[in-house]
Amino acid sequence: MSYLRDVAALARKDLLLELRARDTLPAMLLFVVATFVVFHFALPGSPSRLAASGLLWIAILFTALLGLGRAFVPEREQRVLDGLLLAPCDRSAIWLGKAAATLAFLAAAEVVALPVFALFFRPLTGAMVLGVLLADVGICAVGTFLGAMAVATRARELLLPLLFLPLSIPIVVGGVGASVVGSPGRYLGFLVLYDLLFALVCWASFEYVVTE
């Protein structure tokens, strides 16, 4: 229970800071809506179901990158991360709390993005929405872990996409598959497996990342 309280306190800190500063979420919302508007006017005619699904996942991934790129920047700039590492709590709680806050930001952006996508391109299906939710977990788990690695470098804006995008390819495969096939069960199961595997790896390895 103490571990969960630490995670909740860390996530609440990030959510309160975002409510006060409004740095991350407005940028994510503006970016994802602008992306769909650009795609809508740039593509002639109505794209196929497969193409439209691909556009959705491109927008989601790059919107997530905006939030992930800012995830650890305040802690690093204000040297708060050093204090968190000295706090009497499991260091993996820092990763879990940060991932939970990032997941909340991404989900809030998608509350606006998915209806805009349905308006411009294709109606939403239950499998598509479920695929997005499962993918969000993997995106935030892996992205938060990589964000902690990248923030300590000078080229963090370059390093994070270079590390994150190759690892997100399975998410795109699972998400697009769940969006277009008639029986999406295996693709949704693939996303669940991805989430479990990478969440476990990131949770177990985070202490070594922030220590270095």
Describe this structure in words.
By secondary structure, the chain is mainly α. It has one domain. The chain contains ten helices and no strands. The chain has helices at 2-21, 25-42, 49-69, 73-77, 80-86, 92-120, 126-150, 156-167, 169-180, 185-211. Helix 3 (49-69) packs antiparallel against helix 8. The chain is globular and about 55 Å long. The two termini are 28 Å apart.
Taken in chain order, the helices and strands follow as HHHHHHHHHH
Shape descriptor: globular
Count of helical stretches: 10
Whole-number mean pLDDT: 85
- Cα(first) to Cα(last) distance is 28 Å
Taken as a percent bin, the fraction of beta residues is under 5%
Low-confidence stretches: none
Structural class: mainly alpha
Rounded radius of gyration (Å): 17 Å
Helicity, as a percent range: over 70%
Number of domains: 1
Main sheet record = none
Number of strands: 0
